Each structure stands twice: as C-alpha cells, then as structure tokens.
C-alpha cells in the first residue's frame, strides 16, 4: 500500500503564513510544493525550528531504545564529520580505520576466538545489521544444499514471536519462511525446546534475541545452542545461531560477564548490535560481526573502485555518513570498559529501582524488573478497577512522558502492558519525577467510573513490539 501523507482536511490546502516580526519576503510559503523563489536562511530556519517545537521531548521518550543524549564533544565530532561518506574509504582512510578499530573492539568484547579474523562492518542501524546476518545464514545454507545436490528453494528461519519487526521484513524481502515460536504462559520469549521443535533440514538458522523489545529479557542463547548441538548429534541437521544483540550485546559484556551468549559458543555464527542504542551514539549506526571469514559468504562481498580504489563492501546501504562511526569510536575511547560498565550499571539500577517502585504503587504488576537490559514491562492488575494501560499511557503523555501501551502477541494477546526503556540520560532524578507524575495521574484514573481507552485508541509507537502471526512448522 502506498504511503499517504498525514495531512488533515483542516489545513491541507492552506499555505504557511510567516510571522512578519521575524520574516522578510515572502510572507506566505507553500506547505506541499517548492516555493517559487529563495528564502532568507534565517527565515527558513525559523519556520522549520518553530514547527519542530511541536515534537515531543526526546529525553522524556520512554518508548525508544535510541540514544537521546550525548556529550558535547561527541556532537562536535559528528558535526565535523557530517560531510564524510562512510563508503568512500579511499578518500577518508582514517574514518575507515576507526570503523575497523570498532569492529576489532567489538570482536574482543564478544570473545571472538581470533579477533583479527573476525569480519564485520558498520551499518545504518541494527536492523540493517540483522538483515546482513540473515542473508549470510541463507547463503551458507543454500551453498551446503546445492553442494549436496539437494533442493534449496524452501528456506526457513526460526525465532520467537517477540523478535523486532526487522526480522519479519527480512523474511518478506528475502523470501524466507519465518517460523515464529509463540509465547506461552509465563514464557515471553524463545525457549530452547520450542526452537528445536521448529527446525528441519531447511532451517537456515535460529535467531536468539539478547534483550527482547517486549519485556527486556534475555533469551537463553547457551541453552538454545546446546539443544541445537543435540539436534545435530541426533539428526545431522546443523543449524547456526545469529544473536540479535541490538540492545543486550552492549549490556551483557559489562554487567553479565559470566553469561555465555556470544562467540564463546561455537554455534554462534554472527552477532548484530545497535551503536545508537546502548552503544551510546546518536541515531545512525549499527554493527554486524561474523565469527570468521567462513561465516560470511564471499558472494555477499562486492568490490567497487569508482571512488578511487578497490573497496570491498557488504552493507545493504552504500553512501551514508561517517559521523556516527566516528562518534562510536569516540565513545569507546572516552569511556573504555569501566566507563561503559558504570553507565550501563546506572541504567540498570534506575530500571530496577523504578520497576520496584511501580510494583509497590498498588494497581500495577511488573512482568520483568529491568535486570537484563534496563527495560521492564508492567500491567494493570485485574482488580485495579476503572482504567487500562491505554488510559495510563494517554495520561502520562499529557505530562510529556511517552510510554507505549500494547498487547503481547500470540498466544498472550490477553496481556496488555506498558513498557519503560531506561537509557543514558534518564537518571534517578528523572525517574523520581516520572514516579511523581504517575502517582498524580493515578489519583485521577482511580476516580473514573470505567476504562476510557482500549487498544484501538493506542497512539504510541511500540518500538519493536508489533504483533506478528505465528506459523506452524512444515513437515
């Protein structure tokens, strides 16, 4: 379906009238067509600036996982590198060098056996990185099938129904059957037994999520790997794992060093993460890493030379800014291991403290406590009375807070929750202010005679917690 412009009938045909106090000619500017002539730069800036004042405050957005705060020095570096094209490694060799340093740093952080042989690249975000990981799984599977003289026309990918929407897009775009494991009871993510039950000779891989967008929980990567080891021993079917560590791959190494989820597990072929989430960079950078050269099929690597030299590339995007990659290197250099540990620990402390306080308010029940990635979900108790999670979300929005309310997917569509994402920049002080506002809106909501809003009136973007339909395994 074609995208439609979100204009309302009230002003769809009206031009923009400029305040004469700060404007020069002209005083009227078309909204949906190019102006006939030029504008003074100050006027153009003021027009755009004023309209953007109607956006929400990014720091109060508790729905997004994306970084909303950065140090001035990081922002200055990004401004200095805004014109650099990341793909043009011949023209900007030092920016390319910083990219490779980041890849090697991540390889060591994720316990690659030989970090020098680890293959990786920056991307525009973890969604692109995830699709690269999925493409590599599909190509490796296809090559094995064709080498054995077997059909390679029915690939499938096994994952929990809680995966981020990018995996549904991957399956759609690259013609892979998605096999979603539904939620059951108190299990809100992929389990080892459930994953193996959907695997067969056409399974290109299993996606394990380190930090579910629905409730913040880690999936049991080591247990899934052990179950797949057993499957191979019993049947000969060899299924690799891709770890979607969009959030958790930048949390677990610092806060959960004993948790085995990364390249320490031989079955983990690739990992993606988001530099602009808990990598602490402003939006625009993700990372994809493979265990070694064998895990990334060579036919996914392209060589270009029209920019001045032979440059291998295997990202989906071509031209893109180098500013965020430079900011990532700055963050690694600036914070080091202990700095990241302190930042992430503070986020977790805020999340667990806030989850505990919300659980003690009375009408809420927490499903998770923020003890994995600093994200937690909570619901309204059945005996709470006259309001829903959608009422709570709408009331908090009036105070400036963006807190998404949504239902869980199959088979727990009965469960409607609110979710809070704690990021760097949302500290104990803002958490206290959030609690104060939550207490205030509760006084009003408790006086309602009945629920005022339901799922059909939810306006918030759930940031990854979109519904998907499960499919049974083909046998």
From TrEMBL:
TM stretches of this protein: none
Broad class of enzyme this protein falls into: lyase
Entry keywords, A to Z: Decarboxylase, Lyase, Pyridoxal phosphate
Origin: domain of life: Bacteria
EC number: 4.1.1.15
Gene Ontology terms, MF aspect: aromatic-L-amino-acid decarboxylase activity; glutamate decarboxylase activity; pyridoxal phosphate binding
Region (Disordered): 449-475
Co-factor(s): pyridoxal 5'-phosphate
One GO CC term on file: cytosol
Residues bearing PTM N6-(pyridoxal phosphate)lysine: 277
Reactions accelerated catalytically: L-glutamate + H(+) = 4-aminobutanoate + CO2
Biological processes per GO annotation: L-glutamate catabolic process
Pfam families, alphabetized: Pyridoxal_deC
NCBIfam families assigned: Glu-decarb-GAD
PANTHER family, alphabetized: GLUTAMATE DECARBOXYLASE
The family this protein is said to belong to: Belongs to the group II decarboxylase family.
Name this protein carries in UniProt: Glutamate decarboxylase
């Amino acid at each position: 379906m074609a995208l439609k412009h979100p204009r309302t009938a009230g002003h769809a045909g009206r031009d923009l009238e400029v305040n004469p106090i700060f404007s020069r000619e002209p005083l009227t500017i078309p909204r949906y067509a190019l102006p006939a002539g030029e504008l003074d730069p100050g006027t153009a800036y003021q027009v755009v600036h004023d309209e953007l004042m109607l956006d929400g405050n990014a720091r109060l957005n508790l729905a997004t996982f994306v970084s909303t705060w950065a140090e001035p020095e990081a922002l200055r570096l990004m401004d200095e590198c805004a014109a650099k094209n990341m793909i043009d490694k011949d023209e900007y060799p030092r920016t390319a060098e910083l990219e490779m340093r980041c890849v090697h740093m991540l390889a060591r952080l994720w316990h690659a056996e030989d970090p020098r042989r680890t293959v990786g690249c920056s991307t525009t975000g973890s969604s692109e990185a995830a699709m690269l990981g999925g493409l590599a799984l599909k190509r490796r599977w296809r090559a094995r099938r064709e080498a054995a003289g077997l059909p390679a026309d029915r690939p499938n990918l096994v994952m929990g129904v809680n995966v981020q929407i990018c995996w549904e897009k991957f399956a759609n775009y690259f013609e892979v059957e998605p096999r979603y494991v539904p939620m059951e009871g108190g299990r809100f993510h992929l389990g080892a037994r459930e994953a193996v039950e959907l695997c067969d000779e056409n399974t290109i891989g299993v996606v394990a999520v380190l930090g579910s967008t629905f409730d913040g929980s880690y999936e049991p990567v080591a247990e899934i790997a052990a179950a797949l080891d057993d499957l191979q021993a019993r049947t000969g079917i060899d299924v690799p794992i891709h770890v979607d560590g969009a959030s958790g791959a930048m949390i677990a190494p610092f806060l959960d060093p004993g948790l085995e989820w990364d390249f320490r597990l031989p079955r983990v072929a690739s990992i993606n993460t988001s530099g602009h989430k808990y990598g602490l960079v402003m939006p625009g950078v993700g990372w994809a890493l493979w265990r070694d050269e064998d895990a990334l099929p060579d036919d996914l690597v392209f060589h270009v030379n029209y920019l001045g030299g032979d440059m291998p590339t295997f990202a989906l995007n071509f031209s893109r800014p180098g500013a965020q990659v430079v900011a990532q290197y700055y963050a690694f250099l600036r914070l080091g291991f202990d700095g990241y540990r302190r930042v992430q620990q503070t986020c977790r402390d805020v999340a667990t403290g806030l989850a505990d306080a919300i659980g003690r308010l009375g009408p809420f029940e927490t499903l998770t406590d923020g003890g994995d990635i600093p994200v937690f979900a909570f619901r309204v108790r059945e005996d709470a009375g006259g309001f829903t999670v959608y009422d709570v979300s709408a009331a908090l929005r009036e105070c400036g807070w963006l807190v998404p309310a949504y239902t869980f997917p199959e088979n727990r569509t009965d469960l409607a929750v609110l979710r809070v994402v704690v990021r760097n920049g949302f500290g104990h002080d803002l958490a206290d202010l959030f609690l104060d506002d939550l207490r205030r809106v509760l006084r009003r909501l408790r006086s309602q005679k009945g629920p005022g809003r339901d799922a059909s009136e939810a306006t918030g973007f759930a940031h990854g917690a979109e519904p998907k339909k499960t499919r049974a395994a083909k046998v």
